[in-house]
Each structure stands twice: as C-alpha cells, then as structure tokens.
C-alpha cells in the first residue's frame, strides 16, 4: 500500500505536467528591422505542434501594419519569387520554422518606422480555434544569424 | 559548435576553389553600357578607378534584398580602407511603379552610406538587366501588395573598364563574399 502511495506521489505531478503542456508553442520569434522607406517587413519564428493532429496557421494579425499575410519565398535558378500562401501546416508532433528565404509572416504597409528596441504584438490564429498572442522583438537579421 | 566550424571551413574551401577556377564571365567579356536616373541627375556608367558591385532589387522585397545589403555592408566593413575606397555599389531598383529615388536612397543608406540608388523606366531597366543576363518580372499576386517582383539575386561585378567580370551567389557567408571582392580587386 505504502509502495502504491509513493508511486502516486511521484507519478501524479508528471501526469499533471503533461496535461498542462500547450498544444502549440512559439519559439525565437522576431521581426526583421527594415529601413524606414521599406513599406513591408517579415516575421519569423518556430511553431511547434505537440498534438497528434496536424494544425494550420491560418491568419496573423497585428496593428503595426495595414495588412498581415502569410507568404513563402522560393529560390529557383538564382531567382527569388515570393508568393502568398493560404495557410502554414504544422504536422503532428512537429516544428515548422518560419525563416528568411522560406515561409514568413508578411507585414504589409508598416504604419511607423521600426526601431531596434521595438516589440510588436502579433496574434496568430490556428484552425483548431486557438489564438496565440505574442510580443515579437524587432531585430536585425544577417545570413550569419540562426535566429 | 564544431559542426558549425566544419561547415564554415568547407564553405570557404568550396568558395576558394570556385574563385580560383577560370571565370566564366571573364571569357565572355561582356561590356556593360548604361545610364539610369539617380538622385537629381543621370548616372552614366563610365570607366572608373573602382570596381562596381551591382544588385537588382525592390523596396517591398521581404528577404533577398535586405539580406544582400546586410552582407554587402558587413563585408565592406571588413575590407581595409584602401580596398574599400576601390569599390562602388550600385543598386538598380526594378519596381519603378512603387519606389521613388528619394525612398530608394533612404533604403540603401540604412545599410551602407554611399550606395548609389538607380532607377528608370521598365523598358530601360529591362535593357540594363539583359546586359547582365539578369532577370526581373512583375508578377500579379493575390495580396494587398497586388504584385511582386521576381528577380535575380546575384551581385554582379563590373571592372574598371566596364566589363562584367563576375557574379556572386546569393546568401553566402560574409567572409566568402569578401573573398569575392578581394579577388576582383586584383
């Protein structure tokens, strides 16, 4: 009996912890610092889906630009092509990285010039009816940077 | 960390081998001739005591353009003063419907002061791009942007006599980019 009680004491917190774990987590978010005369910028981050079902990022919203869209960049034969995408799929138990040269959140029509110390509120909406609001710092990006 | 170092060393080795190969562009001897609008005047590509780095892009570009200018700027900062003074950078903006020269100047100054902003009519710009074997095209998209510009991402190098002598691939490590500049300075 004592053994069983001991086991419960040790196992119960683990069980509670796993229940508290978020379905979707965001890591290393950043918005690219762009010159004041650049009308648009891009946002990057890692999105993890810890559920056993595919989740789609279907929309992003923010007040600092006129419009927010989901875009992808394709490089082919030393050419850059940017295209909007309807959603970004995060497969079950996977992480998708939005990064330079690939998928990104496109902020179109920046209302006020960005500065390095800025943090922007962005809401991400997923097809499982979840919304996540995050504060994203504005950072300078170089090709030497991994995040 | 070690993996990163090995990757970087191998990238440098690959770049060095590319640099030491006989250049495709040297054999072609493409002489570049153009004039385009710059702030308050007309820029004419004349013979110079500097080599010229040329990049085609646009201000709404989400990725390739800012990345390239970051690399150019950081690479220029790593050059010695006497090397730096022999390099001129030209930015040919291909989105003349949206971007104005004062905006283009403000944009390039953000990255590295002294980059020459250039613009022209679509017809003029296409003729210039053709000489470099560069590509750009307006593409309508379902977006608030209405259209985007697909474009070449290489940085082209013109020598002091206006010959196209090299083109540098997109998004390479800064130290490799610097090697390309140094090779073309000699």
If you had to describe this structure to a student in words, what would you say it looks like?
The complex is a heterodimer of chains A (147) and B (186). Chain A has a single domain, classed as PCu(A)C copper chaperone (Immunoglobulin-like, Sandwich). Chain A is 13% helix and 52% strand. Chain A is built from one helix and ten strands, in the order αββββββββββ. In chain A, strands 1, 2, 3, 4, 5, 6, 7, 8, 9 and 10 form a ten-stranded mixed β-sheet that branches. The radius of gyration of chain A is 19 Å and the shape is elongated. Chain B is α+β, with helices and mostly antiparallel strands and 186 residues long. Helices cover 41% and strands 26% of the residues of chain B. In chain B, the strands form three sheets. Chain B has a six-stranded mixed β-sheet with strand order 1-10-9-4-5-6, sandwiched between helices. A two-stranded antiparallel sheet of chain B has the order 2-3. Chain B has a two-stranded antiparallel ribbon with strand order 7-8. Chains A and B meet through strand 2, strand 4, strand 5 and strand 8 of A and helix 3, helix 5 and strand 8 of B.
What are the defining features of this structure?
heterodimer; A: 147 residues; mainly beta; Immunoglobulin-like; ten-stranded mixed β-sheet; 1 helix; 10 strands; elongated; B: 186 residues; alpha+beta; Glutaredoxin; six-stranded mixed β-sheet; two-stranded antiparallel ribbon; 7 helices; 41% helix; 26% strand
């Amino acid at each position: 009996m004592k053994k069983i009680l001991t086991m419960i004491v040790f196992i119960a917190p683990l069980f509670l912890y796993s229940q508290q774990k978020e379905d979707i987590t965001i890591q290393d978010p950043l918005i690219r610092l762009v010159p004041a005369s650049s009308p648009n910028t891009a946002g990057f981050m890692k999105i993890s889906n810890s559920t056993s079902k595919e989740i789609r990022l279907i929309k992003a919203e923010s007040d600092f630009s006129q419009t927010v869209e989901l875009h992808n960049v394709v490089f082919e034969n030393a050419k850059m092509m940017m295209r909007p995408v309807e959603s970004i799929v995060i497969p079950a138990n996977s992480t998708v990285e939005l990064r330079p040269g690939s998928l990104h959140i496109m902020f179109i029509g920046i209302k006020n010039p960005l500065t390095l110390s800025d943090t922007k509120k962005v809401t991400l909406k997923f097809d499982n009816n979840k919304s996540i609001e995050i504060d994203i710092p504005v950072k300078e990006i170089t090709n030497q940077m991994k995040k | 960390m070690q993996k990163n170092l090995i990757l970087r060393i191998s990238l440098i080795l690959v770049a060095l081998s590319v640099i030491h190969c006989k250049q495709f562009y040297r054999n072609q001897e493409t002489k570049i001739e153009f004039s385009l609008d710059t702030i308050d005047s007309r820029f004419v590509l004349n013979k110079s005591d500097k080599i010229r780095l040329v990049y085609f892009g646009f201000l709404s570009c989400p990725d390739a353009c800012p990345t390239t200018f970051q690399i150019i700027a950081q690479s220029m900062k790593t050059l010695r003063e006497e090397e730096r003074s022999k390099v001129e950078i030209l930015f040919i903006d291909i989105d003349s419907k949206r971007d104005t020269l004062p905006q283009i100047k403000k944009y390039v100054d953000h990255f590295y002061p002294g980059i020459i902003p250039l613009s022209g009519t679509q017809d003029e710009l296409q003729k210039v791009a053709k000489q470099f074997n560069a590509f750009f095209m307006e593409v309508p998209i379902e977006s608030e942007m209405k259209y985007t510009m697909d474009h070449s991402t290489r940085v082209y190098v013109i020598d002091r006599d206006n010959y196209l002598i090299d083109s540098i691939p997109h998004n390479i490590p800064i130290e490799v980019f610097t090697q390309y500049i140094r090779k073309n300075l000699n």
